[in-house]
Amino acid sequence: MQELFDVINEICAKIQVVSDLFWNFPTNFDWYANIPVLGNFSLAIILLIGSGIYFTCSLKFIQVRRFRYGLHVLKESKAGKEGISPLAAFFLSTAMRVGPGNILGVTGAISVGGPGALFWMWVSAFFGMATAYTESTMAQIFKEKKEDEYIGGLAFYGKRLVKNSAFVGVFLSVMYIVYALLCFPAQGFNTVSSVGQIAETITGTTIPTNSALYWISFAVLIVMLIIISFGGIKKVTKVTDVIVPIMAVIYVLTVVVLVVVNIDRIPWFFQSVFTQAFKPDAVFGGAFGVALIQGVKRGLMSNEAGQGTITMPAAASNAKHPCDQGCVQAIGVFLDTIVICTLTSFVVIMGRMWLTEQSDAWLEMGKLPKFIASVGELAPGETFNAIVSVLVSICFGLFAFTCLLGFFSFTEICANRISQKKSFIALIRVLCLIVISFGVLTSIAGMDLGSLWDLSDFANILIAYCNIPLLYLGFKYVKRATAHFEKNDGTPFTSETVGVDVPVWDEKATEEKGRTMEE
């Protein structure tokens, strides 16, 4: 068994080299790296941040101007006969955005790039809100209807934008499935591991990973995934509508309490973030480019703005106007990075473990142990520390579980885009369960497949390179939709409005006209 894991780790490590090439190109060439200022920015960062800046300016800072409106849409959200409500779509996308990366990714970014990495996460998120608005509005424009559900997203608008190419739709569907499969093992591992972490904290004993607790947790996880995910989007949202608010409130309140009891460290927190954004300490490499790329990379992995991976829950909404869901999804980026990731950063940065006598040991720890150790540094007393550790572990497990639900559901939607044969869908379902099981069994076997988790970096940048060009290709439709949205003259959104065939919206306009005439 160990030999198999060693081979997989070796293969993943080689793929990670390719991933770093994609993320760092062309800063890994001396001729480019030596260019003042510009040499710190890789193509990936220029593409992601640059696109966010372009969409922000072109849409006149839509993420700021319409932030309150997005909150209004969430407040007035109502379920309809078709699709899911904007609020349910928001919770579903948040279930996928707010994952273990909000703890592991942020902790890793700070431990490699220093506190300044958080500043670049903020920058990435601010402009990423405009990117999220753009891709989510586009997902709404080109969504399709399947029975009583709406489906759409990257594979759907990709097909329509590239001469209605079935090949493009299939290719992008395959890309998403590959992306999800690369993320499944880590999320399965994280879900079951969190159960063990909770049990160990409560009992004060070390529980072997091959104990009955882990096997039972594994069985329960698989059964729950099958029961929930095989029931369609509406069934999934019934679960995420409950879990997402609970896990968000628990995590926010837990960290806020830690911050309050260490309020004297807040000035140092902001000072370190802003000063080290441009000149990190030597312990973090001392290079501006390191903090920059860690912040942008982890920001992207967390809020997923620009990847197109959150466009499917956006398309599932029964929004009154495409731009309504665009405004809502922009708020999702804000919640994920500006709120949740910042709270994680408060713990890691205010813990200041790299400045203590245990600094060498802390830097050598894994990402989750680093975070837990930082919690221990901030928590006053062993009892309080134990309570906080349990709450954090609960959130960590829920973060991973909701990610699994989202990935599983939208993998099936993409599979249907490739082929609607029951045998093919069943094959994809089984494949997903096998890959998830592999991650869990890794935990039970006590093996370390840390390099497999790093493959999500590769999946993220690959799918982003596929999505960003499509956003530029279809941006004219987003601008037309936005102009109609802001005109707010009471006319329905139709094919004539946007300048491209949108059957779902034409049908909706006809139905609304019929209801008006009846009244």
Shape: globular
- The ordered H/E elements are HHHHHHHHEEHHHHHHHHHHHHHHHH
Number of helices: 24
Q: What number of structural domains do the residues give?
A: 1
Going across the biggest sheet, name each strand in turn: 1-2
The CATH topology turns out to be Amino acid/polyamine transporter I
Biggest sheet descriptor: 2 strands, antiparallel
- Beta-strand portion reads under 5%
What structural class results from the helix and strand content? mainly alpha
Could you report the average pLDDT, rounded to the nearest whole number?
Answer: 83
Q: State the name of the first-level CATH class.
A: Mainly Alpha
- Rounded Rg: 23 Å
According to DSSP, the number of beta strands is 2
State the distance separating the first and last CA atoms. 69 Å
Helix content: over 70%
* Low-confidence sequence ranges: none
Examine the secondary-structure arrangement and name the CATH architecture. Answer: Up-down Bundle
What's this, in brief?
This protein has a two-stranded antiparallel ribbon with strand order 1-2. It has a single domain, classed as Amino acid/polyamine transporter I (Up-down Bundle), CATH 1.20.1740. It contains 24 helices and 2 strands.
Key features of this structure:
519 residues, two-stranded antiparallel sheet, 76% helix, Amino acid/polyamine transporter I, 2 strands, mainly alpha, 24 helices
Describe the model.
- There is one protein chain.
- A hairpin with a 2-residue loop joins β1 and β2 (149-151).
- This protein has one domain: Amino acid/polyamine transporter I, CATH 1.20.1740.
- It contains 24 helices and two strands.
- The chain has helices at residues 2-24, 30-33, 43-58, 62-65, 67-75, 86-97, 104-113, 116-141, 154-161, 166-203, 212-229, 233-261, 266-276, 288-303, 311-315, 322-351, 359-364, 367-378, 382-418, 422-444, 450-453, 455-487, 495-498, 503-518; strands at 144-146, 149-151.
- The longest helix has 38 residues, at 166-203.
- A two-stranded antiparallel sheet has the order 1-2.
- The chain is globular.
- With 519 residues, the chain is mainly α.
- Helix content is 76%, strand content 1%.
